[in-house]
Amino acid sequence: MSLRQDGDSMFERNIAIIASRKQEVLVDSDGVLYEGFLCGLDEEWLQIYGHDQEDRDHPNLSWRFVLINRSRINSIRTTGRDTMNIVVSTREWVEKRISAFVNIAEKFQSSSKRDTLNG
């Protein structure tokens, strides 16, 4: 028996946990910092709803979906903020996207556990 998790399962599980806690993240991808909320994940891409960190103090901050190539990610860390730190209209929209992602992640994790136990 090995403690090592196969493939990207640890990365994927931790992404789902952070998303479910509605925590804001800072993603470093080749020196560009993206700040936002985790909303999607597949084999090649991590999706956040956020912005470049450089835009953070811009008066017309533009929130948008950002796709980040997983092979280009250097680090992901939480900022200490969550959805309660953003304006209500944006918060409601972001929480819907997070909820959809978390629901899908939970279904995949449940089926993966069943496959492991039955395999």
What does this structure look like?
The chain is of the alpha+beta class and 119 residues long. The protein has one domain (12-108): Roll (SH3 type barrels). Helix content is 36%, strand content 34%. It contains two helices and five strands. Strands 4-3-2-1-5 form a five-stranded antiparallel beta sheet. The chain is globular, with a radius of gyration of 15 Å. The two termini are 14 Å apart.
Spans where pLDDT lies below 50 across 5 or more residues: none
Average pLDDT for all residues: 85
Class inferred from helices and paired strands: alpha+beta
Shape from CA axes? globular
Instruction: Look at the structure and give the CATH class.
Output: Mainly Beta
Distance between the termini: 14 Å
Sheet with the most strands, sense and barrel status:
5 strands, antiparallel
> In oligomeric terms, what are we looking at?
single chain
Named at the architecture level, the CATH assignment is Roll
For the CA atoms, what is the radius of gyration? 15 Å
What is the H/E order? HEEEEEH
CATH fold call: SH3 type barrels
Descriptive keywords:
globular; 119 residues; SH3 type barrels
